[in-house]
């Protein structure tokens, strides 16, 4: 009898310890939430020497969505919307922080074939897309953007410019951006914003979008988005205080 009792206690205790350890491990992978869905962002917490400017960063192979639905929050009355793409979660986390401050609607850009979990394969694909000017196909329903005055545009920097899904999105929908204020935000591997803002301006112009204004961009290192709260607050306050 005593042996059975000891066995039961050890068994239950062991299970509890195991469950606690597993939960802690899972919690550590969840960097935040966007529209209530968890965000994993493997670059966070890496020291600069381990991070190596983002080189080698894995994704979940589904542009952060292997366990989630693509983020989509569209309401009737919002006057601003966050439109973003993120492969490995850092830009998504930045988008979630902007959403918390602004209560803007949210639309995640989804491509038909998501980028590989493996960094080198993603890089090769991106290089070939760029050389051939053959950008990915978008696979999502895009609502009318007419109700919005401000569009927060979020992307990772790829090869010193916009990540390709954002180029595809703007090539297809940029013509509906006339008269809107654009607030660019991005995460990058330490080399900065590149020509990404000029690129957005050029695409919008080519698409026939007129009368756009641009805010100062928000540029954050991909491994430090969890330390960017104050910058996000200052940036969003500046924008919302000068709302058009
Ligand atoms: C294909 C590719 C190209 C990249 N090129 C650059 C670059 O030119 N400059 C830079 O600073 N970071 C570069 N990076 C690093 C990403 O900008 C950085 O890791 C970013 O935080 C990723 O954001 P995400 O987690 O939202 O996908 C590149 C990453 C990838 C996958």
TrEMBL record:
It comes from the Bacteria. This is Flavodoxin. Transmembrane segments: none annotated. Residues 80-240 form the Flavodoxin-like domain. The lineage of its organism: Bacteria, Bacillati, Bacillota, Bacilli, Lactobacillales. Residues 44-72 are annotated as: Disordered. It comes from Liquorilactobacillus uvarum DSM 19971. Gene3D superfamilies: 3.40.50.360. GO terms for molecular function: FMN binding; oxidoreductase activity, acting on NAD(P)H.
């Amino acid at each position: 009898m005593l042996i059975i009792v000891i066995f039961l206690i050890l068994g239950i205790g062991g299970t509890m310890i195991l469950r606690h350890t597993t939960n802690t491990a899972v919690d550590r992978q969840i960097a935040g939430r966007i529209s209530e869905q968890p965000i994993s962002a493997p670059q966070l917490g890496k020291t600069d020497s381990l991070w190596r400017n983002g080189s080698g960063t894995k994704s979940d192979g589904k542009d952060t969505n292997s366990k989630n639905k693509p983020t989509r929050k569209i309401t009737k009355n919002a006057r601003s919307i966050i439109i973003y793409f993120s492969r490995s979660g850092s830009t998504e986390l930045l988008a979630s922080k902007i959403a918390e401050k602004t209560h803007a609607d949210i639309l995640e850009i989804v491509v038909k074939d998501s980028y590989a979990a493996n960094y080198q394969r993603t890089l090769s694909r991106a290089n070939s897309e760029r050389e051939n000017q053959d950008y990915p196909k978008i696979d999502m329903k895009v609502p009318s953007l007419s109700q919005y005055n401000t569009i927060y545009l979020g992307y990772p920097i790829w090869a010193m410019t916009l990540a390709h899904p954002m180029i595809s999105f703007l090539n297809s929908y940029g013509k509906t951006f006339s008269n809107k204020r654009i607030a660019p935000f991005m995460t990058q591997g330490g080399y900065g914003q590149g020509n990404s803002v000029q690129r957005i301006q050029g695409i919008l112009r080519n698409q026939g979008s007129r009368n756009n204004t641009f805010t100062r961009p928000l540029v954050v290192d991909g491994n430090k988005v969890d330390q960017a709260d104050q910058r996000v607050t200052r940036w969003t306050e500046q924008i919302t205080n000068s709302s058009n």
